[in-house]
Amino acid sequence: MDRRNYAFDKVNFILLAVGMLVVIIGFILMSVTGSTETHYNPEIFSPLHIKVAPAVCFVGFVSIIYAIIRKPKDNQ
């Protein structure tokens, strides 16, 4: 089979998908119902929402960047 030199290989796509999944999980962790005029929700200031979730998103973005700049190995 004729193998062309593609910029990405299978591992790059897997790393990219995992990074996107981690970012989505981080955004889901960041989402919380807000306070209204009649009800105060102290949950918006929990460490999960203001510290952990942004760190998870950051790790996901870094892994996406790594997946993009990773050079595939040539098997020729």
What profile does the largest beta sheet have? none
Unreliable stretches (pLDDT < 50, length at least 5) are none
The helix count comes to 2
Morphology call: rod-shaped
- Which radius of gyration do the C-alpha atoms yield? 19 Å
By helix and strand content, what is the structural category?
A: mainly alpha
Helicity range: 55-70%
What number is the mean pLDDT? 87
Structure description:
The protein is an all-alpha fold. 58% of the residues lie in helices and 0% in strands. α1 (10-30) runs antiparallel to α2. The chain has helices spanning 10-30, 47-69.
Provide the fold topology:
Layout: H1 10-30, H2 47-69
Could you list some keywords that capture this structure?
76 residues, mainly alpha, rod-shaped
Short précis:
The protein is mainly alpha-helical and 76 residues long.
